[in-house]
Each structure stands twice: as C-alpha cells, then as structure tokens.
Design brief:
The complex is a heterodimer. By secondary structure, chain A is α/β, with parallel strands linked by helices. In chain A, 31% of the residues lie in helices and 29% in strands. Chain A is built from six helices and nine strands. Chain A is globular. Chain B folds into two domains: 1-146 and 272-296, no CATH class; 149-269, no CATH class. In chain B, the strands form three sheets. Chain B has a five-stranded mixed sheet, sandwiched between helices. In chain B, strands 6-9-7-8 form a four-stranded mixed sheet. In chain B, β10 (275-280) and β11 (286-288) form a beta hairpin. In chain B, α1 packs across α4. Chain B starts with a helix and ends in an 8-residue tail after the last strand.
Chain lengths: 202, 296
C-alpha cells in the first residue's frame, strides 16, 4: 500500500502501516543522528523542538549558507540507522517521534520501541541525496549547530518526501531482519561450495 | 597563477567533479545491473539511483551527502617537478573543493570530539604514497570514504588451517550483516597478507581497481569470480531490500604472507563509488582516466 501522510501524524495513521508499505511524507521533520541521540538520551538534554507526531531523519546534510543567514539544502540522504540502535527506543519515548527515516534496518530494541510508542522505521533509498534535497521546500531553522554540519538538528519543511519503505511496524514486523534471515540461510551452502574450490596447497 | 596554485586548482576541480559523478566503469556496471534488477523494490530503487545521478549532474551537486573523509592514493613520479609541494597542493585542493562543491564537513578530531569544519584534520586528508622511479608524472586516485561504506570494513588474522575458506566466510558474514547498510550493490575489496594492517590497506587498494578488472593471478581471479557469483546468489538487492544481485564485483589484492598467518582485510565501496583517477604530467596537462573525455 502507498500512503500520503502529513506531520503531525496520528497514532491511527501509524497503526495501519505494515512492513513493505510506502509513505510519501509532507510537513516538517528534523535530521538527527549519533550526536543528537547522544545528547538527548545519554546526556538527557532537552530536545529544542516539539517532535510529537513528527519524523526524525537519520541524515547529515550538506548545507549552503545564504547571504541572509538562512540555509539551503545541497544534498541530504539517509545514513545507517543501526548506529542509533542503542538509543532509539528511548528517543521515541522521550520525544513522541512517530516516523524514523534512515537506511538499512534496526534491531530488536528499536522494534520493541516502535511497538511501545506506536512508531515506525522507514527506509529511503541510500545515496539518492540530490533527489531527496529536491523535496525539501526550505530549511526552517537549525539547533545544536555546535555539533557540526552533519550532526546538527536541521528542521526541514518537506513535500511528498519518499519513497519511505516501512521496515519496522507497530506489530513487531521487521523487513530487514526477515531479509537477513533469508540471506543467512542462503549463505552457508554457498560458502561451502566456494571453499571446496580454494584448497591451493599442493 | 603560479604552477603550485594551478596544480591545487586542477586537483580541486578533479575532487568537485568526482563528488558529483561516478566513474565510467561504475556507471556502466550499474546500467547493466539495472536491466537485471527489474522487479519489486529493486526496480524502484534503481530508478531513484539513476534519477539521482541525472540530478547531481544537472545541478552540479555532490551526488551523495556523505562526501566522506578524503583519501588520496598517489603514484608519484620521482622526477615530477612539483613533488616537494604536492602534499600541500592536495591539502589546499581539499580546502577549495570543500567550499566549491561543497563537500560535507567530515573531519572530527579524535579526543577533542570537534568537527574541524574544513575537511582538514590530523592525518586528513589521508595520503598514501608510492614512488615511481624516473617518471615525471603523477597518478592520483581519490576515494571519498563515506561512513556507510566504511562501516563494514574489518581486518583479522586467521590461522593458515582456516584456509581461503576462512577468508570467504569472514567476508560473507560481514556482507550479510553490515553489508546491507553499506548501500549495496557494493564493490567488495579484499586484501590477503601476513598481518592485519597490510591486508586492510590492500583491501582499499583493491577498491581502486576498475569494476570488471581482474587479479592477474589465475587462482586469485577464480576466487574473485566465485565470490562475486556467490554473493550475488544471496540476493541482497539494492539497499538490502532483496533482489537478484548483491555486488558490482569482488576485487582481491595480495602480499606474500608469513607461514603461520593468513590475514584478511575487507573494505566495501557503496554503489555511489566515487573513485577519481587522474594522471597529471610535468607540464600539468592531464588525462582524466576515470571519466574519459571530461575536461576539468
């Protein structure tokens, strides 16, 4: 199924999503990755935005500063979500974020966090950062810029941002986990087959 | 403009161009793979990848936001007239390109935990040197070492009785766990040597070889081909979302090992494998090897 959603999204919007569904998202979102999670969760600092019903995009953009002090997005694609695995469930609980956007999957802690906090994790195609930048209407503002350009909390206004492929849903479904199980099943006989050909000692 | 500034300026244009365009061999391989990956999410993602390359070219922007830690691998002719100043020219080129491309700020000083904001930092840009006796030209390979593609990297020292199968197992295990995050289809670089740091460095050098090239040793070539075929059968697909393929290729480089050790290193390049390769002559004329016919 394909869904068009607007922030702030409701629990009802999120509950109907299942792994493999696709979202196009309109509204305001923030970027946040390692250091944002470090500050918000490990250091328990207050996040300077109200993120209830919003989305967090695991991304470190390239920004260009305009003459009037505002910013323009040059390039912004997803980063590896798994790096945030240790803190994401607590981040969801603390902020009320409903949609996580990144690449690759996330693990069991985040899956439980999505069940407990009625949230989803989604995947945007990795490396497609110029296409993503084209769906940003404007950079609303920025906080925690002292963390540097990639790590700051950039507040973005986006239009039909997607495809966001649902990879963790509110019922514990985990698309990438399912895929990894399949990959690992396929792997063992292939390794064995190749190994047999590689005894080079005469 | 004096010759040193001219060299920095040329190198900065080389970096800017390479941040926005994939090398000819990578682009060609992805085109081939797109024909095969024609179902499900894989087809959608390949479409997005090619749309992104088109937009990056039109808008002259870095194709991926992660322009990486800048690494140079230099084959330096010992008679190149600007050899003394070359390191400074490379550093200067990174400064210029950071502003012009623009590149993302990716140099975080260890212990200070501060981003320098310039892409210049301790031992960054990373520069690897090889000397070429008697030559008056240089060859510069640029690699933008992004986070996602660097994360699966590893090196470990196996015991020889684990054999080459141990190498295969270590690489396959890493590809089915961390590999899905490294923006597959990846190019897999493998180094085999006697100690961890040599294997690690060779694995990165393997990534500098063209997609579709082969190790001249017939056994190594066979191992490359078998591993490529085997990884593709696993079917990671683009972004780990399943498909008919996993990798653009497997490149192996080796150094003689110690009788008692079999070290393996692995580096992965994401599909947006921004590897630049240029030859610059003593008169500063150049041949842009990775993007034939492009004038900088």
């Amino acid at each position: 199924m394909i869904y068009e959603l607007k922030t702030p999204v409701s629990d009802e919007d999120i509950k109907k999503l299942r792994i493999g569904d696709v979202i196009y998202l309109t509204g305001d979102i923030v970027t946040g990755r390692d250091d944002v999670h470090h500050r918000a969760v490990l250091q328990n600092k207050e996040v300077p935005y109200d993120l209830k019903g919003k989305a967090i995009f695991h991304a470190g953009p390239i920004m260009r500063k305009n003459d009037d002090g505002s910013y323009k997005v040059v390039s912004v694609g997803p980063t590896t979500s798994m790096r945030m695995e240790s803190c994401e469930a607590q981040f969801l609980e603390k902020t009320g974020v409903k949609i996580i956007i990144g690449k690759g999957g996330m693990g069991p802690k985040t899956t439980q966090g999505c069940i407990d906090n009625c949230a989803v994790h989604t995947i945007y195609p990795g490396g497609c950062a110029v296409v993503a930048a084209e769906s940003v209407n404007k950079v609303i503002d920025v906080e925690w810029l002292d963390l540097g350009m990639p790590e700051a909390l950039w507040h973005l206004d986006v239009n039909r941002f997607g495809p966001l492929i649902v990879s963790i849903d509110t019922e514990g479904g985990n698309l990438i986990d399912d895929n990894k199980k399949l990959f690992n099943e396929r792997k063992e006989p292939i390794i064995e087959r190749i190994t047999e050909k590689l005894d080079f000692l005469e | 403009m004096d010759k040193n500034n001219e060299l920095s300026d040329l190198l900065s244009r080389f970096i800017c161009y390479s941040s926005a365009h994939l090398p000819d061999d990578v682009y060609g391989k992805l085109k081939e793979m797109q024909q095969v990956e024609n179902e499900g999410f894989a087809a959608t993602i390949y479409d997005a990848m090619f749309e992104n390359m088109k937009k990056a070219d039109e808008l002259k922007r870095p194709s991926c936001q992660d322009t990486g830690i800048i690494q140079f691998f230099v084959k330096a002719g010992t008679k190149f007239p600007y050899l003394d100043e070359l390191e400074q020219s490379l550093v200067e080129a990174v400064k210029i390109a950071t502003d012009k491309a623009p590149l993302r700020h990716n140099a975080v000083e260890v212990f200070d935990e501060k981003n320098t904001g310039t892409n210049i930092g301790t031992r960054v840009p990373w520069i690897d040197w090889e000397l070429v006796p008697g030559s008056d030209s240089i060859e510069v390979y640029l690699y933008m070492a992004g986070g996602g593609c660097s994360l699966p990297g590893f090196a470990k020292v196996l015991m020889p009785l684990e054999g080459y199968g141990g190498v295969v197992k270590a690489v396959f295990d890493q590809m089915t766990s961390y590999g899905v995050n490294a923006c597959p289809p990846c190019l897999v670089g493998i180094g085999i040597a006697g100690s961890a740091e040599v294997a690690a460095k060779l694995s990165k050098k393997a990534l500098l070889r063209e997609v579709g090239s082969h190790n001249p040793n017939p056994r190594a070539r066979m191992m490359e081909e078998e591993m490529e075929k085997g990884l593709n059968e696993i079917g990671l697909g683009p972004g780990g979302l399943r498909g008919k393929m996993s990798v653009m290729g497997v490149n192996i480089e080796q150094a003689a090992r110690h009788p008692a050790t079999l070290a393996v290193g692995m580096s992965t390049a994401c599909w947006a494998h921004r590897r630049g390769h240029i030859r610059i002559n003593g008169d500063l004329s150049y041949d842009f090897i990775s993007s034939k016919g492009v004038e900088l």
